[in-house]
Amino acid sequence: MFSYDFMQNAFMAGTVVSIVAGIVGTFAVARNYAFLTHTLSEIGFAGAAFGLFAGWPALLGMMVATSGASLAIGALESGYTKRDNVTSAISALAIGLGILFLALGHTSTTAATGILFGSVLGISRQNLLLLIVLAIFVIVTLLINYRSLRQLAFDEAGIFLQSGRQKAVRYIFLVIIALSVSISSQLVGSLLIFVLVTLPAASAKYYATATTRLMGLAVIFALFGTWSGLSLAYLTNLPASFFIAVIEVLIYLVSVWQFQKNA
Predict the structure, then answer these.
(1) Dihedral class, residue 189 (left if φ above 0, else alpha if ψ from -120 to 50, else beta)
(2) Of 49, 64, 4, 20, nearest in space to 184 by CA
(3) In whole angstroms, what is the distance from residue 141 CA to residue 45 CA?
(4) How confident is the model at residue 1 (pLDDT cuts 50, 70, 90)?
(5) Which pairs with CB-CB distance under 8 Å and at least 24 residues apart come from 90-94?
(6) What's the whole-model pTM score?
(7) Which family does it belong to (predicted)?
(8) Looking at beta carbons, which pairs linking 156-164 to residues 24 or more positions away fall under 8 Å?
(9) Does the pLDDT of residue 222 top 50, yes or no?
(10) How far apart are CA 153 and CA 226, in angstroms?
(11) Which DSSP letter does residue 123 get?
């Protein structure tokens, strides 16, 4: 299996994506950003479609769209109900725009499928290097702001009382999520981004409470689902995103069952 270049690229890309998704997902789940992550995935679809329409790389279009949308949504952070209503409307608009750009750009079925469901088995070495650069940027940014981001996710009242950086930290966090969504889309596509960004972290919270342990478990769950999914995709010639989604859902269900059993 590893004698093929495309499988080597796929596993390396999957490893990078899983590490980023597991780490960032821990903070997203702690801050109850599952809905926002799902919304950004649909906005990313529109951005990728526009990118192809404009002659850009799909990943660039997705990064611009998700980053811009996350900052705009962040301005509504103070009103949760209003924010949810607005993000729902933006989500619906994004899907419509994505379909429009695909039609106007006469995008091929293969390209459209890659945006929606991922195309990790066809990832090139150049795209892999871009993913690694983006992943390093996300992780370094998170590490630099680790204490503030941890406090924002787990103790927002504390960061509000202790410093005036709350709004800046929120925007940094939203951009990190947006970039993570864009990175993860290369593996599972825009429709299944939440599978890697939220489910591994949601499963990890049933086994640990410390932030570092949560991140570690989330990364392990993400890596297990990704590596297993890629291996099964190679053996069966079926989409890797399908297997990754099924495995991550099973891990989550087992985690919930184990927690309820021991409660």
Answers:
(1) left
(2) 20
(3) 25
(4) confident
(5) 90/39, 90/43, 91/38, 91/39, 91/42, 91/43, 94/39, 94/42, 94/43, 94/45, 94/46, 94/65, 94/69
(6) 0.86
(7) Belongs to the ABC-3 integral membrane protein family.
(8) 156/31
(9) yes
(10) 26
(11) -
